[in-house]
Amino acid sequence: MSLHPILIAGQWRPAQSTGSFHSENPATGEPISGEYPISAWADCDAALTAATAAAVALRTTAPEKIAHFLTRFAERMEARKAELVDLAHAESGLPKAPRLGDVEFPRTTGQLRQGAAAVLEGSWALPTIDAKLNIRSTLAAIGPVWVFGPNNFPFAFNSVAGGDFVAAIAAGNPVIAKANSSHPGVTRVLAEEAFAAVGEAGLHPATVQLIYRTGHADGERLVSDVRTGATGYTGSRHAGLKLKAAADATGKPIYLELSSVNPVVILPGALAERGVKLAEEFAGSALMGSGQFCTSPSLIVLIAGDAAEQFIQTAAARLQAAPVAPLLSSAVARSLAASVQTLTSAGAQVVTGGTPVAAPGCRFNNTLLRVSGAEFLAAPAKLQTEAFGNASLVVTVRDAAQAAEVLTHLEGNLTACVYSDTAGSDDALYAKLEPLLRERCGRLLNDKMPTGVAVSAAMNHGGPYPSTGHPGFTAVGIPAALRRFGVLQCYDNVRATRLPAALRDKNPNGKMWRLIDGAWTQRDVGA
Amino acid sequence: MSLHPILIAGQWRPAQSTGSFHSENPATGEPISGEYPISAWADCDAALTAATAAAVALRTTAPEKIAHFLTRFAERMEARKAELVDLAHAESGLPKAPRLGDVEFPRTTGQLRQGAAAVLEGSWALPTIDAKLNIRSTLAAIGPVWVFGPNNFPFAFNSVAGGDFVAAIAAGNPVIAKANSSHPGVTRVLAEEAFAAVGEAGLHPATVQLIYRTGHADGERLVSDVRTGATGYTGSRHAGLKLKAAADATGKPIYLELSSVNPVVILPGALAERGVKLAEEFAGSALMGSGQFCTSPSLIVLIAGDAAEQFIQTAAARLQAAPVAPLLSSAVARSLAASVQTLTSAGAQVVTGGTPVAAPGCRFNNTLLRVSGAEFLAAPAKLQTEAFGNASLVVTVRDAAQAAEVLTHLEGNLTACVYSDTAGSDDALYAKLEPLLRERCGRLLNDKMPTGVAVSAAMNHGGPYPSTGHPGFTAVGIPAALRRFGVLQCYDNVRATRLPAALRDKNPNGKMWRLIDGAWTQRDVGA
User: Fold this and answer.
1) Of B143, B469, B488, the CB nearest to A442
2) Which residues of A touch B439 (CB under 8 A)?
3) For chain A: N or C, fewer Cβ within 10 A?
4) Residue B147 burial (C-beta neighbours within 10 Å; 0-12, 13-18, 19+)
5) What is the pLDDT of residues B356-408, one digit of tens each?
6) Within chain B, what is the greatest distance between any pair of CA atoms?
7) Does residue A446 belong to the interface with chain B, where contact is any CB pair within 8 Å?
8) Residue A341 near chain B (CB below 8 Å)
9) Apex CA A514: angle with CA A512 and CA A519, to 5°?
10) Does B253 contact A at CB distance below 8 Å?
11) Helices (H), B177-236
12) How many beta carbons lie within 10 A of that of residue B154, not counting itself?
C-alpha cells in the first residue's frame, strides 16, 4: 500500500512508518481514499535536525521575506480554494457554505496576511530601549515550533496555515506541523502550498515541515527534545496534559488550548425581558459547528422559575427542530456519548436528545441536559465534563446565593458570559457575580454568545488552567499570539553595529512601536 | 525555647512549628541569637486562605493605595536603615560599605519606588483596545504569590522588599514571603515595616505575610495549591526544579531564577590589546560578593597562547592578593567545596585556591581553575557545574573552531559576554560566535562584566532553561518583571461602566500607555 509522503527538510519523502491511517467522511461514515503514515521517531528526529538549521537561517532572514511567504501562501491557498473547501467538507462534515468557504477560509487567509503585516511592522516583540544605560531588549525567535492542530477547524487552526502556524512563523520560527488525524488531506494540500510559497519567498526549505501522526511516546519525546523551541497544541485535555508534563520536565514552553465549558449566566431581568430571544440565540450558538467550538456555550446558569422553564422549553424546541449535523469523526461521536453518560450518571436529566443517531455517519441528537443547583453542587467536577459536540447543560439555581456558589466551583474556562437586562435591574447581581466569573475565564462577555472569536489585537483566546497551560497568553489575536513563540533577549552595552535592526537608534521601518525611555514611540532614539 | 512569631492574616502569631532554626554569622561562624520556626502545613494553609481574601480585596483597591504602600515601605525601611544594614551584615557576612549600605539598600528602596510609579502609571499591563469591535484586554492580578528569596541579596531579592515582592505587589497581588534561612532576622524586620506600611496605606492586612521556613514536601504542596496564583523563586537549581515539577503538575505559573555560569569570551584582539586590564576587571567581578552573584563570571573562554597565559597569571595573582571574604553560610561553603571537587574530578586544574579556609567562619580560598578546550569537550556537563562562590574556570581553546564547539555545549545562562578589540580585528570572529551565545543567554554583553544588573525597563535577568523556568520573562526590570504576575483578561462587548478603569474610553490618569487600534497612545479612545 502506498502511503502519502511527509515533508521533511525540503523534500516530500516516504515516512519511516510504524503504521498508517486514513480519514473518514463523518457525514457518511465512508473512508476517504489516501493512506497516511504514522511516523517513527526517525522522522521526528530528522525534522528537528532540519528545523534547527532553518531556525538559524531564519534569524538572519529579512522580515520582508517572511512576510512575503505568508502573503504568497494566502494567495496560493486562494488559488486552490474550491479544492480545499471540498476536501475540508469531506473530511470534517462541516458545511461548505457559509462555514468553510465564506467564514473559515477567509479568516485563515486574513490571519496569514495579518501575520505578514505584524512581521513587517515588528512591534509584536515589544522592543525596549534604555538609551541612557544602553540596555536594549526585544523578544526574538524561540526556535523550532511543533504545532498540533485540533480537529474542529480544518483551516483556521490547521497545523499548517492556522493561528499557531502563523504566530510561530511570524515570530521567526520554523514550524513542524503534526497534522490532525481527522483531516490529513486538507493538511497535505495546505503543506504543498506552504512549501511552494517557502520556495518563492526564498526561505530555508525546512521552514515548514509536515508529519501526519506519531505514537504517543514520540509525541512526548518531541515536545521535550533539546532542539525544540516550543509547542502549540490545541486539542483534548487528556492528551494535552501528557504533552505538558513531558515538555515541562525539560523546561520547554508548551502553549495548550484545552477544554472549556464556557459558562453563560442569564440574569433574571434579562430572562424576563428577552428570554425567548436568548433561548434562540443560545441554541444557535450551541449548534454552531455541531457544538464543536472551543468556546461553545455548554453550561447555562439560570435562576429557577417560570422564566427558566420557558427558556429551557424554547431552547429544547429549537434543538429538536434543527437538523442533526454530523460530528467531526466517529471518535468525537464516541467521546460525546461518553461525556453525556458521565453527565447523566452525575445527576443530569435529559431534556432533549441524549442519544446517538445510528446512521448515516457520526451524529448525536441535539442535546439539552438539566440539573438543579443543588445537584450540580453535589458533583461539580463531573458536571463540568466537557461534552464536545452538540450537547449543553442548564443549571437551574435556587437563588443568587446558590448561583454564586455554583460559580465558585467552576474550573478555568476560555470564556464566560453574563446576560443582563437593559433597564438595570440586574446590575447589583452582575456586580456580585462578575468577580467570580472574571477570575475563572480568559474572556468575559456581556450580552453575547462566546462562539465568535475575532482575530483582534485585544482578543484573549486563553484562560486559567485547565482551559490552557498558562494564563498569560492568547492563541488568537495578533500581535499578542506571536509572543508565545518569543524569548526575551537583552543587549547590554552591545556595540551599535552589532544590534538587531529593531534595537538600533534608527527605527528600522519608521512604523515600529518601541518603548524608548518609558514612552512608546515610532521615532528614532534621540529624535 | 521561644520562637519568633510568623505574620499571618494580619497578625504576628506563633507558628505551628515542626522544628526551628537560627542564622549564623558566616564571618565568625557564631550563631546569631533568635530562633525561628519551621512551619507545618497548617501555617501555609492559613496564609493561603488569608491571601485569597487579600487578593479579592486588592482587585478593587485603588492603584494609589498600592503605590502609597510601596513608597511608605521604602521610607520606613530607610528609617531603620542602620539596624537593617547591621543585621544584614551579621547574617550574610557582606560588607556594610559600600555593598549593603551604599549599593544594595538604595537599590532596594529605589525598586520599591519604581514599583509605585509603575502602579500609578499602569502601562505594565499592556492595556489593549479594539474600539471598533469593542474588545478590550489587559493583564490583571494573578492571585496570591509565594516569594522564595535567595541567600545572596538580603535586601534586593529579599522575599519581603526584593524584586519579586515588588513585582507581585505592584501587579496587584498579595505576597506570602518564604524567608531565606540564612537571613531570617533581616526578613523579620523588613516584614515588620512592610506590615506597618500595609496598615498606613489601608491595604488588606494579609497583603504581606511571612513564613520563615517549611518542610520540602510542604514547599511542593504550597506552590501547587489551588489557591496559589504564582510563585517567584530564586535559588538553587535542585530545589527550584522540584518546586517547578510540583507547580507545573497543577498548572501554576512558577518563575525560577536558577544557576548560571555566565560565560565570558575574550577574543584574541582584546586579549592582545588590554589583557592585563581585563584580567583585573574579571578578578574584580568574580570576587564581587565573594562570587555569590547569579551573574558572576564563572566560565572564561580564551584562545590558548601567551596572552591567555598572561591573563591567567594576572587574574590568579589578583585573586591571591585579594582578601578572602566570608561566604554567605556554611552551606554555601560546603556546596562550593563540592562543586570545585566536581570540576577538578572532571579534569580542571587548580591555578590558585581550591581549598577551604579553616577559620574564622565560612570561607574558601579565592579560586581559579583551568581546563583545555579538549578537556572541556570531554565532560561539558560536569565542567558547567555552578561553583556558587569565589571560584571560576578558564577554558583555553585551541582555536576559533574549538571555541565555537565549546559554546555549542553551553546550557542556558542568564548572561554571556564577549570582549573584542577596539580596532576591529575581532569582528569576524565575533560575528561567528555571537549567534552561539545569543541563543544560550538572556543578556548579551559587550566589553563589560555581567555582575551589574541594572533595574532598567530594558533589563533581562532571565534566560533559557535551566537558568530560568521560562525564557520569555525577566526577574529584574520594571515594568516587564510585573508581567510574570499577571493573567490576560479580555472584555468582549462588556458595558462601558463595567470595564476596569484601564480599559475605559477615558485614559484613567492621562499618562497610561495603551495600544488602541494598533497605535500606542496616552490619549482617550476616539481622541
Assistant:
1) B488
2) 143
3) N
4) buried
5) 998 889 999 999 999 999 999 999 999 999 999 999 999 999 999 999 999 99
6) 73
7) yes
8) no
9) 135
10) yes
11) 184-201, 216-224
12) 31
Q: Establish whether B490 is a catalytic residue.
A: no
Q: Are B447 and B419 in contact (CB under 8 A)?
A: yes
Nearest to A179 by CA among A20, A339, A363: A20
Topology of B33-258+474-482 in CATH? Answer: Aldehyde Dehydrogenase; Chain A, domain 1 (3.40.605)
Distance CA A479, CA B515 (A): 11
Amino acid letter for position A226:
V
Q: How far apart are CA B203 and CA B190, in angstroms?
A: 17
B96 DSSP 8-state letter = I
Query: Which pLDDT belongs to residue A358?
Result: 86
CA of residue A134 relative to chain centroid, distance: 39
DSSP state of A98: I
Enumerate residues 6+ apart whose C-beta is below 8 A from A11. A205
A33 touching chain B per CB within 8 A: no
- Nearest by CB to residue A489, choosing from B446, B457, B460, is B460
* Listed residue (B419, B483, B469, B474) closest to B445, CA to CA: B419
For residue B400, the model assigns a pLDDT of 97
Counting Cβ atoms within 10 Å, is residue B374 exposed (0-12), middle (13-18) or buried (19+)?
A: middle
Q: So what's the pLDDT on residue A527?
A: 87
Give the residue from chain A lying closest to B521, CA to CA.
Answer: A520
Question: Touching check for B139 and chain A: CB below 8 Å?
Answer: yes
Q: Is A172 on the interface with B (CB under 8 A)?
A: no
Cβ-contact B458, A514 below 8 angstroms: no
- Contact (CB, 8 A) for B443 and A503: no
- Please state which of the four CATH numbers 3.40.50.300, 3.40.309.10, 3.30.420.140, 3.40.1550.10 is assigned to the domain occupying B263-446: 3.40.309.10
What backbone torsions phi and psi does residue A358 show, to the nearest 5 degrees? Answer: -60, -45
Any residues with CB less than 8 A from the CB of B238 and at least 6 apart, and which? none
- Answer whether B471 sits within 8 Å of A487, measured CB to CB: yes
The helix/strand/coil state of B265 is: strand
DSSP string, A462-480: --STTSBS-TT--SSSTTG
pTM of the full structure: 0.97
The strand pairing partners of A209, in sequence order, are: A176
How many whole angstroms separate alpha carbon B112 and alpha carbon B105?
11
What is the Cα–Cα distance from B99 to B85, expressed in whole angstroms?
Answer: 10
* For B474, nearest residue in chain A (alpha carbons): A488
What is the pLDDT of chain A when averaged over all its residues? Answer: 97
Domain ranges for chain B, please list them: 33-258+474-482, 263-446, 488-521
What integer is the mean pLDDT of A495-502? Answer: 98
> B292 by DSSP, 3-state: which?
coil
Q: CATH assignment of A30-258+474-482? A: 3.40.605.10
Among A175, A224, A138, which Cα is nearest to A7's?
A175
- How far is B29 from chain A, CA to nearest CA, in Å? 38
Integer Cα distance of B322 and B289 in angstroms: 13
C-alpha A465/C-alpha A240 separation (Å) is 12
In the structure grid, which three cell numbers stand for residue A133, read together?
A: 544605560
Catalytic residue among B91, B104, B193, B294: B294
pLDDT band at B2 (very low <50, low <70, confident <90, very high): very high
Query: A478, A477, A473: which is closest to A231 by C-alpha?
Result: A473
Backbone angles phi, psi at A452, to 5 degrees: -85, 125
Q: Which of A91, A193, A257, A273 is catalytic?
A: A257
Cβ within 8 Å of residue A93, ≥6 positions away: A25, A26, A27, A290, A325, A326, A327, A328, A361, A362
**CB-CB neighbors (< 8 A) of B130 in chain A:** 454, 456-459
**What phi and psi values does residue B310 have, to the nearest 5 degrees?**
-65, -40
Check if A375 is active-site. no
